[in-house]
Design a protein that fits this description.
411 residues; mainly beta; Tachylectin-2, Chain A; 5-stranded antiparallel β-sheet; 4-stranded antiparallel β-sheet; 26 strands; DUF4185 domain-containing protein; signal
């Protein structure tokens, strides 16, 4: 997307919306938590300005391949502004009736067309990629993707053959600022069946994007992947180390949470893994699940966050002992590796389920995490994703498939 021209009025309006949203996150400074006890949750409220800023960008666009919805929704401060990191992403336009066009820009049938019988059809349209960025700079938002030889948008991180049907793909995990650009972990996935949840993890990589070109990774480095752990669910820098949180699916739903660390800021160096005894080992196979009350292993969502708040670390996760739960939970620990308190529900996504705002049993909420660079002391800014188990829903109602934001007030 060219940036040589002056910012048009629509872009300035979108930028003002984001600035208003950020100002809304900094409206108070509550007192610190009592010594010896984790912070208390005083209130949780939606952040309509921040949620609405993304909606305004998606719905006021031209047919220029811009973002109209995505999930994962990590954020990384970079030299140019704030980099929003998305996994599966719709590109293009939103029609006046709130739907997405049913045919891809390349003319092939897309979701919602009469030939749309396979839930994966839209994954091979030029209006859909498996990962993208939205860079929000001083002039507003810009969609960033890769491009193929014909100039059509493709995923930023992809297989050598591109986003071809049947090929594995990469979904985004957490990222951190690096030299004005960003280092982002991606998980490689492949399909195992025709359903929307028929996918399997295949490995982890680190993509490093320079400040001068955020559309093409400078390097793509394999990361530890020997144990089936999807590393990079969250990244935390503390005490001269970078902590890497990973998740591994368990029977009955949810995931176990694991922890590794690297010295310094570069994840390409050697890692050490948190063991059952609380020590650290060079062997990934010795990594043990992090614990909750009574020493029981935590059960968490696939994506989450662990962020320092004073002398405490806040774990934000989705309730994982119930399939597709709409509840966002919060637990606390004194150290990055726990043990954590029992996760407690702080928010129930109002969009999800048959009694939700869409009145649709297929609509789900998932994978919450914090955005610490948007916060002030005494609050958490949390995003979560909304989607549907029926892919036709996110075509008929584009607004379903976008992130939502809430502010958690602590005291």
């Amino acid at each position: 997307m060219s940036r040589a021209h002056a910012c048009p009025p629509r872009r300035r309006a979108a930028h003002r919306l984001l600035l208003a949203a950020l100002a809304a996150t900094c409206a108070f400074l509550p007192p610190s938590a009592p010594s010896g006890a984790p912070p208390r949750v005083l209130a949780v409220r939606p952040l309509p300005a921040l949620t609405g800023a993304f909606a305004a960008y998606a719905e006021r666009g031209r047919p220029d391949g811009r973002w109209t919805g995505g999930d994962s929704t990590y954020s990384v401060p970079v030299r140019a502004g704030r980099l929003w990191v998305f996994s599966d992403t719709f590109l293009g336009t939103v029609r006046p009736d709130g739907s997405r066009p049913p045919v891809g820009e390349d003319g092939r049938p897309g979701p919602g067309s009469r030939n749309f019988s396979d839930s994966s059809d839209f994954r091979h349209s030029s209006g859909f990629v498996h990962n993208s960025f939205v860079l929000w700079d001083a002039r507003g938002p810009h969609t960033l993707t890769g491009h193929d030889r014909a100039g059509r948008p493709v995923s930023l991180v992809r297989e050598a053959g591109g986003d071809r049907p049947g090929a594995p793909w990469y979904w985004a995990r957490a990222g951190l600022p690096e030299g004005g650009g960003a280092a982002v972990v991606y998980a490689r996935y492949a399909r195992t069946g025709p359903g929307p949840l028929d996918v399997a993890w295949r490995g982890n990589v680190l993509a490093r994007f320079g400040a001068g070109d955020l559309t093409r990774p400078r390097t793509l480095t394999p990361l530890p992947s020997a144990t089936g752990t999807a590393w990079g669910a969250w990244l935390l820098r503390a005490g001269g180390r970078t902590y890497v949180y990973g998740t591994r699916a368990v029977p009955g739903g949810g995931s176990r949470l694991y922890l590794a660390r690297a010295v310094g800021r570069d994840l390409r160096g050697p890692w050490r893994y948190r063991t059952a005894g609380g020590g650290w080992s060079n062997a990934e196979t010795r990594a043990a699940p992090l614990r909750g009350p009574g020493g029981a292993p935590l059960r968490v969502s696939e994506e989450l966050s662990v962020v320092a708040h004073g002398g405490w670390y806040a774990l934000v996760t989705q309730q994982a002992d119930e399939a597709l739960s709409p509840r966002i939970q919060l637990a606390w620990a004194r150290s990055p590796g726990g043990p954590f308190t029992r996760p407690a529900t702080v928010w129930t996504a109002p969009e999800a389920g048959p009694r939700g705002t869409y009145g649709d049993a297929d609509v789900i909420a998932y994978n919450p995490h914090e955005h610490p660079d948007l916060e002030r002391p005494g609050e958490l800014v949390v995003s979560y994703n909304v989607n549907s188990l029926d892919p036709r829903d996110v075509i008929a109602r584009a607004a379903v498939y976008r992130p939502r934001f809430v502010r958690v007030r602590l005291g």
